[in-house]
């Protein structure tokens, strides 16, 4: 929400600036836009890299050098918004208010310690498959409507919340409940989050396994796809076909890793951006892929009269990112699987389509115990 | 032979009855003034006849029962000037006057050229020449009344109901306005009901005066015929002790003047 | 007499300049957009360019022009009928009804056509409800309608909040918010035909009924004594104006300021309310929306809500007109 708000403020400012520039030539105005929006995006990015530096210097990290390192409590970590959080002892009850961190807790083998999760858990198949008991857990609301009281009443020893819930984190800290704010919006931030949470929960061993799996698959994709022509891919968001992810977003990295090129590379927004049919036709992507939770289907896109001249539609190259276990287009621990899936579609000669099926089964069995 | 026959009319707002059992008649070509103290029901009487207010009793114009007519048919028979016209948006004077033709036009029909010419002529007649493109709202209150008078005249209705049409006019225009009204009723064989504030004006320009007191009819005066003493006693019931004197202007015409007696 | 010819010449001048400007602006808007179109490409029959031009670019330009015209005229009608310079179709719950309808469509129906239909139904439904409530209260001089409108407006707002609460924040909520912000994005030949025809019919009807609209500017008693069936006529005219407005905003989402501003602009240029004032309201509305949409589609790398620009363009315009009028008098 906050990010959207920021975006709107930026837009209004841009609008005002442009109004005063109406007489100016078009290139000049485009330049203005870019500078302003970059300025907006840079702010959070900077604070995160700060956080990373700080995290490196925490005492906890000193012991990280050994691969089977144990966290020594009390431990002080710096979360992804730069807050310093001290955890006195290994947390035995954890609340997660964000589906991505909940998924991570599962992957780190902490499912027995989770005592509360985010609302609307019923619509995420991964809980049914990996931890049916989660569906019975008390819910602490959504990022929109966080339920502070329920959360506090569970007296958790650790709470993990998305960055949007900064205010709730503040309130919980005042109740002496340690809160980690996470912000997995890029591949790096995802890995940073994995390290952060594993340090706080003394599960670094599992984290290392997870991280090395991700690295291994990444390297494999890079190797297999070296030298191929990047295919132009348009990623359509959950809310509508005409909302898309710019290069600053996690989803853009997912496409690149799979040997694709984000068609929306000129977008400077850091959130889902609205574009027009014309823009989509001008980009003319070879592939259109839909976000996992999209309300519309590839058939809807293929039947869209406005797109009948688009290469992707003409060639029938419209696919939805799998979401049968979890939404793989979001920065969940298994997000790398989406790249493997997409690589199988974009470059079937280099990466076989079966590879995704096999890797998916292996990954979820290893880390989530789903058979 | 009377044109307008009002019988046993009672009316009011909500449950409160303001007018009780009023009956009177008016002949064609006459002006009937309605006199009465503030709040005695003058406006209520006009509104009841105009069928804006629900009422008991009946109003007969020629052979038509006014109550049985639709708004449109009624408007073809009867023109009405409210105390204050409710025009709040900016309109040209000509457009305001042309509204007087509304009942004669069908839903989508615009006013004809003849109507426009006649409207302009009527504006000139009432004393607003060359103002047809002016903004109605920027006229003085008196000019507005003249404009609304012109709107009422263009329709050529059989019955005119005028609620204090002279209130914002100065001395000269008051008399002029009553002359225009006289010309109109004579030309159209119409009858006019006028509530007036100024009893002297009423005594000298109306054919008959209906005197209302607390919602009942307390009498009728024909200024030309009724003896002065009877007029005095009737009007005293409204205005306090008064004295009516006959004066002659320089050309020898008789005028009635009403003056207030010092109260003891 | 001299004075009247002078003012009628001025009116003619304003109408001609306005119409020409709107036409030029609309044609100009045909050449602003994301897809690289060239005149020669369109004429030579490059199938893709032709398709983009006809189904997207021209359709959007025409909706901008007609939509703004409709909103301007509807604003004029509402301000006249309610004798209130601040009235606009929102006063009887058109926009809140449309928002709730659109939210319902986004949540429970699929496809953009369904959302348009649902928004249309919402707008019309809330207005019909408001008019029905008003006829029960039999308020004088349209005050009943305003009160009923406020009641229906709050009801629709409550429904909207409830629907937003149900919505998934990642997808549906974003769609609802974006819809409410209003945009001409997503308009294409395939989605507009019905709405555009409806709007043209309704606006033509309003122009034919101009004299009746003026009669409604009188107090009810006065109007009735001039033979106006005030209650019925008011319902009829409000319904037509609402139909036209709903036809537009069900396609575009809410567009602020035009209904309010365009009639004021027209009245500042043409001093009195005339048929030409109503027409000029439409012209100004059309210019505002077309200009706003040109900016909304070209300023940033993404599509922006058009209301930002209609307000940003509109407010200084109104101030300019007020200042100019002040100086003249």
From TrEMBL, chain A:
Biased composition annotated in UniProt, kind: Low complexity: 33-61
Q: What is the top-level taxon of the source organism?
A: Bacteria
Domain spans labelled Fe/B12 periplasmic-binding: 93-350
Region Disordered: which residues?
Answer: 33-70
Keyword check for Signal: yes
Q: Which residues form the signal peptide?
A: 1-30
Which family does the UniProt entry place this protein in?
Belongs to the bacterial solute-binding protein 8 family.
- Designated name of the protein: ABC transporter substrate-binding protein
User: Which organism does this sequence originate in?
Assistant: Wujia chipingensis
Automatic annotation (TrEMBL), chain B:
The record's section on PROSITE patterns has:
ABC_TRANSPORTER_2
Entry keyword set:
ATP-binding, Nucleotide-binding
Q: Which GO terms describe its molecular function?
A: ATP binding; ATP hydrolysis activity
Key word Ion transport present in the record? no
Task: Tell whether Isomerase is among the UniProt keywords.
Answer: no
Q: Which InterPro entries match?
A: AAA+_ATPase, ABC_transporter-like_ATP-bd, P-loop_NTPase
| Ranges where the ABC transporter domain occurs | 4-239
What PANTHER family does the record point to? Answer: ABC TRANSPORTER ATP-BINDING PROTEIN, HEMIN IMPORT ATP-BINDING PROTEIN HMUV
Tell me what this protein is called.
ABC transporter ATP-binding protein
UniProtKB/TrEMBL annotation, chain C:
Highest taxon of source:
Bacteria
> Where does the sequence pass through the membrane?
13-37, 58-79, 91-110, 117-138, 144-166, 187-210, 235-262, 274-292, 304-323
User: Which Gene3D superfamilies does the record match to this protein?
Assistant: ABC transporter involved in vitamin B12 uptake, BtuC
Instruction: Output one GO BP term.
Output: siderophore-iron import into cell
Q: Which InterPro entries does its entry note?
A: ABC_BtuC-like, ABC_transptr_permease_BtuC
The protein's predominant localisation is membrane
* PANTHER family assigned to the protein according to its UniProt record, in alphabetical order: ABC TRANSPORTER PERMEASE PROTEIN MJ0876-RELATED, FERRIC ENTEROBACTIN TRANSPORT SYSTEM PERMEASE PROTEIN
Q: What is this protein called?
A: Iron ABC transporter permease
The protein's organism comes out as: Wujia chipingensis
């Amino acid at each position: 929400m906050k990010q959207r708000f920021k975006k709107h403020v930026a837009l209004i400012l841009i609008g005002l600036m442009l109004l005063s520039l109406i007489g100016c030539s078009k290139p000049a105005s485009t330049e203005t836009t870019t500078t302003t929006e970059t300025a907006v995006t840079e702010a959070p990015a900077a604070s995160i890299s700060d956080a990373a530096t700080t995290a490196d210097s925490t005492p906890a990290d000193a012991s990280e050098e050994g691969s089977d390192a144990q966290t020594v409590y009390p431990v002080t970590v710096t979360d992804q918004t730069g807050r310093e959080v001290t955890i006195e002892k290994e947390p035995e009850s954890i609340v997660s208010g964000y589906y991505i961190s909940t998924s991570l807790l599962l992957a780190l083998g902490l499912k027995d310690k989770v005592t509360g999760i985010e609302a609307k858990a019923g619509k995420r198949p991964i809980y049914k498959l990996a931890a049916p008991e989660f569906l019975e857990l008390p819910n602490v609301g959504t990022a929109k409507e966080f339920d502070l009281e329920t959360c506090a009443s569970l007296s958790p020893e650790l709470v993990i919340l998305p960055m949007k819930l900064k205010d709730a984190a503040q309130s919980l800290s005042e109740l002496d409940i340690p809160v980690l704010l996470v912000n997995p919006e890029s591949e790096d931030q995802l890995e940073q989050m994995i390290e952060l949470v594993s340090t706080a929960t003394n599960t670094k061993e599992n984290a290392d396994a997870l991280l090395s799996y991700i690295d291994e698959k990444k390297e494999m994709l890079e190797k297999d796809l070296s030298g191929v022509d990047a295919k132009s891919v348009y990623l359509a968001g959950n809310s509508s076909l005409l909302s898309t992810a710019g290069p600053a977003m996690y989803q853009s990295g997912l496409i690149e890793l799979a040997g694709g090129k984000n068609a929306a590379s000129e977008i400077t927004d850091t959130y889902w951006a609205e574009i027009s049919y014309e823009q989509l036709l001008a980009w003319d992507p070879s592939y259109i892929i839909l976000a996992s939770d999209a309300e519309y289907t590839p058939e809807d896109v293929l039947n869209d009269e406005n797109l009948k001249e688009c290469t992707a539609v003409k060639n029938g190259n419209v696919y939805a990112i799998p979401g049968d276990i979890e939404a793989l287009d979001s920065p969940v621990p298994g997000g790398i699987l989406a790249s493997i899936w997409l690589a199988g579609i974009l470059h079937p000669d280099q990466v076989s389509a079966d590879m995704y099926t096999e890797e998916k089964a292996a990954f979820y069995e290893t880390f989530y115990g789903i058979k | 032979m009377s044109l307008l026959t009002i019988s046993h009319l009672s009316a009011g707002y909500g449950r409160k009855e303001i007018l009780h059992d009023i009956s009177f008649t008016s002949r064609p070509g006459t002006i009937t003034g309605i006199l009465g103290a503030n709040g005695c029901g003058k406006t209520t009487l006009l509104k009841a006849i105009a069928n804006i207010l629900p009422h008991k009793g009946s109003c007969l114009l020629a052979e038509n029962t006014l109550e049985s007519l639709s708004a449109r048919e009624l408007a073809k028979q009867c023109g009405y000037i409210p105390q204050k016209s409710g025009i709040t948006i900016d309109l040209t004077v000509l457009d305001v006057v042309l509204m007087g033709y509304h009942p004669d036009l069908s839903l989508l029909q615009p006013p004809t050229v003849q109507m426009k010419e006649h409207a302009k002529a009527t504006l000139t007649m009432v004393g607003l020449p060359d103002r047809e493109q002016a903004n109605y709202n920027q006229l003085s209150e008196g000019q507005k009344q003249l404009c609304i008078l012109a709107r009422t005249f263009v329709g050529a209705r059989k019955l005119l109901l005028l609620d204090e049409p002279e209130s914002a006019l100065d001395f000269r225009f008051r008399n002029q306005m009553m002359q225009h009204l006289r010309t109109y009723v004579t030309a159209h064989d119409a009858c006019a009901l006028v509530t007036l504030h100024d009893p002297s004006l009423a005594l000298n320009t109306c054919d008959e005066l209906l005197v209302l007191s607390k919602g009942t009819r307390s009498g009728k005066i024909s200024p030309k015929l009724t003896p002065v003493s009877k007029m005095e006693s009737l009007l005293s019931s409204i205005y306090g002790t008064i004295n009516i004197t006959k004066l002659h202007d320089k050309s020898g015409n008789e005028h009635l003047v009403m003056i207030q007696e010092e109260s003891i | 007499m001299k004075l009247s010819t002078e003012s009628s010449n001025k009116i003619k001048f304003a109408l001609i300049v306005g119409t020409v400007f709107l036409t030029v602006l609309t044609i100009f808007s045909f050449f602003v957009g994301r897809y690289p179109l060239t005149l020669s490409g369109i004429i030579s029959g490059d199938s893709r360019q032709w398709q983009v031009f006809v189904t997207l670019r021209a359709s959007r330009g025409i909706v901008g022009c007609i939509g703004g015209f409709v909103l301007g005229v509807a604003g004029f009608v509402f301000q006249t009928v309610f004798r209130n310079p601040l009235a606009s179709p929102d006063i009887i719950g058109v926009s809140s009804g449309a928002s709730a309808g659109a939210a319902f469509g986004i949540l429970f129906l699929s496809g953009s056509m369904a959302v348009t239909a649902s928004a249309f139904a919402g707008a019309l439904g809330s207005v019909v409800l408001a008019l029905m409530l008003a006829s029960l209260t039999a308020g004088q001089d349209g005050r009943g309608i305003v009160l009923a409108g406020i009641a229906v407006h709050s009801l629709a707002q409550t429904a909207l909040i409830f629907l937003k609460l149900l919505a998934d924040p990642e997808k549906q909520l974003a769609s609802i918010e974006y819809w409410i912000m209003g945009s001409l994005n997503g308009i294409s030949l395939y989605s507009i035909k019905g709405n555009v025809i409806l709007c043209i019919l309704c606006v033509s009807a309003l122009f034919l009924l101009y004299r009746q609209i003026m009669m409604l500017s009188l107090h009810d008693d006065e109007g009735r004594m001039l033979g106006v069936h005030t209650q019925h006529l008011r319902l009829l005219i409000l319904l037509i104006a609402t139909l036209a407005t709903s036809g537009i905003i069900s396609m575009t989402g809410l567009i602020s300021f035009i209904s309010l501003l365009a009639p004021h602009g027209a009245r500042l240029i043409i001093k009195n309310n005339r048929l030409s004032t109503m027409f000029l309201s439409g012209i100004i509305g059309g210019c505002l929306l077309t200009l706003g949409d040109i900016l909304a589609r070209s300023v940033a790398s993404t599509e922006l809500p058009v209301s930002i620009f209609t307000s940003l363009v509109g407010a200084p315009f109104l101030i300019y007109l007020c200042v100019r009028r002040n100086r003249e008098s």
